[in-house]
Design goal:
Blueprint lengths: L3 H25 L4 H6 L1 H7 L19 H37 L6 H34 L9 H25 L1 H12 L1 H5 L5 E4 L7 E4 L1
Helix pairs in contact: 1-4, 4-5, 5-6, 6-7
InterPro entries: 7TM_GPCR_serpentine_rcpt_Srj
Keywords: Membrane, Signal, Transmembrane, Transmembrane helix
Length: about 220
């Protein structure tokens, strides 16, 4: 369990990470007049909007001034380094956690079984951000460099993938850990029972006074 100083350090780390990312975007990938002119026709045709009225972050690798190309490459390479570092951190921390869990001789069979389940969950949780966060970003950043015209597919797949991360990450834990999984299956199989729990029904009795008996 983390001490208060550890929690504070973790909070500061996340703040610094966000500041570094935002600083790189504002310094190297901001959209100026040349960038707005470059995409004006395409945005007018596809979205019917004026690119000069938009706030954007953009990298131009070709057909631009040397200054634009220089800062575009610098911004993308720095962001690639930050992203690669984050993914590497997932892998290293996951490996350390699994090694720590495995280095417990003499534990009970129940604990060993729980550790194996946690191994699987950690492996999946390491794999998920690589697939739906890191890979779409790399494709969007370096696709134009490789001559890949992703078009609207980049918008559809990239946005959906990034939005799915908060759902898929806890879902992996629910599915891989039996206690959570069995509870979820029970809820799915008996939705009416859970939705109607705590409700009451009123049925008339057979006496002539018209009284009713409330059943819970």
């Amino acid at each position: 369990m983390l001490r208060p100083s550890g929690l504070f350090g973790l909070f500061i780390f996340f703040i610094c990470h966000g500041i570094a990312w935002s600083t790189v975007c504002e310094m190297f990938l901001y959209g100026d007049q040349e960038v707005s002119d470059y995409i004006y026709e395409g945005f007018r045709r596809d979205y019917n909007v004026d690119s000069h009225d938009l706030s954007m972050l953009m990298a131009l690798f070709f057909d631009a001034s040397p200054e634009i190309k220089r800062r575009s490459w610098m911004g993308i390479l720095i962001l690639t380094g930050i992203s690669t570092y984050a993914v590497s951190l997932y892998i290293v921390l996951g490996w350390k956690i699994m090694r720590k869990l495995a280095d417990n001789p003499g534990v009970s069979k129940t604990t060993q079984k729980l550790h194996r389940q946690l191994f699987k969950a950690l492996a999946v949780q390491t794999f998920i951000p690589i697939c739906i966060s890191f890979s779409p970003c790399m494709m969007a950043w370096y696709g134009p460099v490789l001559g890949l015209d992703l078009g609207m597919w980049n918008n559809y797949l990239g946005v959906i993938a990034l939005s799915a991360f908060p759902v898929l990450d806890p879902l992996a834990i629910i599915i891989l850990l039996p206690n959570y999984r069995n509870k979820l299956i029970g809820v799915v199989k008996r939705p009416i029972k859970y939705l109607n729990s705590g409700t009451s029904a009123v049925r008339p009795t057979g006496d002539s006074s018209g009284a009713a008996t409330q059943l819970y």
